[in-house]
Specification:
With 263 residues, this protein is of the alpha+beta class. The protein contains eleven helices and four strands.
């Protein structure tokens, strides 16, 4: 899986290089508030160019990561090779799979065997790189921007829009984890920020915490957000549950390993 390319550069080096270049664009745009300067002459055109390059880099990075150290990808490839008729005179690499059932390879079992084999040969650092690579593969460009905006440890306001019950409690949740962090990061899809934040929390990269009174102004701004206002229309009596989000311990470690400015 880690074979060298003909030009001498390893696939892992190429992936790392792509990650640095993609992360550098996302991190730079988030830190400088690039999207906020659209009114300046020429900035809108420049921003489109940055986003196009960023998209190309991240697409290529995702393709490379799909090919590197992916046990399921390896299992499927091997299963496909086993089920293809042999070509006379052509020598192909053989991969040992778990026993097949009814002459059909079982890629899920083979993928698990691949992971178990990795666990034997991996040291601490290699296991950490593999773990971070798996996380990186799951991030969208907008989520990378949000993580970059959170990377300095600053908290951002977050609110849930819930339906108030007759006893003053919380009922149905109409919107979860809306936040101003999307605008600060300059994301491409502002209406998807609640989903981005929820995914980042699910990945363990972001923590949800209690309301911070010093962010009162930002909470007020967040309540005027179009996504929040739209969710408010879908409940009879809206209640806003205030929280904050900040980068988690895992998120900080992950960012330190991937931070393009540290390359």
């Amino acid at each position: 899986m880690n074979a060298e390319r003909p030009n001498g550069r390893g696939t892992g080096d190429e992936v790392a290089d792509l990650a640095r270049r993609a992360g550098q664009l996302a991190g730079w745009a988030a830190r400088t508030g690039f999207a906020l300067g659209r009114k300046l002459p020429g900035v809108e055109t420049a921003e489109r160019t940055v986003r196009q390059v960023e998209h190309q880099l991240l697409s290529e990075l995702r393709r490379r990561l799909d090919e590197v150290d992916d046990p399921y990808h390896a299992a499927l490839t091997a299963a496909s090779a086993m089920n293809r008729p042999a070509v006379p005179g052509k020598v192909e690499a053989t991969v040992t799979l778990v026993p097949a059932r009814d002459n059909h390879a079982e890629p899920l079992r083979a993928a698990m065997a691949e992971l178990l084999n990795h666990s034997i040969g991996f040291g601490r650092e290699r296991a950490r790189e593999y773990f971070y690579a798996i996380i990186l593969r799951q991030l969208t460009p907008d989520e990378a921007r949000i993580l970059s905006a959170l990377s300095d440890g600053s908290p951002f306001p977050a609110v849930d829009v819930v339906e108030r019950t007759g006893l003053g409690g919380n009922g149905r949740v109409a919107l979860r984890n809306a936040s101003t962090v999307g605008k600060a990061a300059g994301v491409s899809l502002p209406d998807q920020v609640p989903g981005y934040v929820t995914r980042l929390i699910g990945l363990g990269l972001v923590d949800l915490d209690e309301e911070v009174p010093s962010l009162e102004t930002q909470y007020e701004i967040l309540l005027t957000d179009e996504t929040v206002r739209e969710a408010e229309k879908h409940v009879k009596r809206a209640k806003f549950v205030r929280r904050t989000i900040h980068i988690s311990r895992l998120g900080a470690q992950f960012w330190q390993a991937c931070d393009p400015s540290m390359a």
